[in-house]
Each structure stands twice: as structure tokens, then as C-alpha cells.
Design brief:
This protein is α+β, with helices and mostly antiparallel strands. It has two helices and five strands; from the N terminus they run αβββαββ. It has a five-stranded antiparallel sheet, with helices on one face.
Length: 111
């Protein structure tokens, strides 16, 4: 997907602030954070949405997500996946949001 912004980030064509990476995923700071230290966990391979990620990668996705949370040194957080346009997915490349939370941070998750 040459035009996908996340694919461009992964290829190094667009700068980002990487927090972690491994063979399968890159964790970056969100360019438009909803809260302080808002991170995105992005598969290196292009998958259009969360359901397209191969099952064998889900364990690895959770492992790098946990490592990123530990690196932030937070105990309270939201993990959010917007799957599809109606669910608020703005970029058609699967990704998971890590939203560290603090009392009074002003962010409201409407579920």
C-alpha cells in the first residue's frame, strides 16, 4: 500500500517518534494525541483492519503492547481498536491505541 501513511512511516518515508519496535510491529507516539503519551501499535505488514491480522500475530501484538505500557510506567490505560469507518477507523491500516489515563485528564471514552 504505497499511499498508506502507516506504511510510509514504517518504510521511514515519514518521520515519527518510535517508542518500541520488533520484527512485526512498530510502536509510535500518536501525531494527534488524545492524552499525554498516546501511542499507536502498528503492524509492519499492511492489514486493512484488526480482523485481517493473522491469528498467530495476536499474541505478539499483546506482548509488544504490554512492553510499551510498561515502558510508559502507567497502571491505568485504555486499549482501543477502531475497526472500520463506522467505528472511527481513519487510517485503513490496522492499529491499536494505547491511551494512558490519569484522573482529571479530560479525555472521555464514549462506550
Amino acid at each position: 500500500m504505497e499511499e498508506c501513511i502507516f506504511c510510509k512511516i514504517i518504510r521511514g518515508e515519514i518521520p515519527c517518534q518510535k517508542v518500541l519496535e520488533d520484527d512485526n510491529f512498530v510502536v509510535i507516539r500518536d501525531a494527534n494525541p488524545k492524552v499525554v503519551d498516546h501511542l499507536l501499535v502498528i503492524p509492519r505488514e499492511h492489514y486493512g483492519n484488526f480482523l485481517e491480522i493473522p491469528s498467530e500475530l495476536y499474541r505478539k501484538l499483546l506482548e509488544i503492547t504490554k512492553r510499551a505500557i510498561e515502558k510508559l510506567d502507567v497502571n491505568e490505560f485504555n486499549l482501543v481498536v477502531n475497526n472500520g469507518k463506522s467505528a472511527g477507523q481513519l487510517i485503513s491500516h490496522a492499529h491499536l491505541h494505547i491511551l494512558p489515563r490519569k484522573e482529571g485528564d479530560g479525555f472521555r471514552l464514549n462506550v
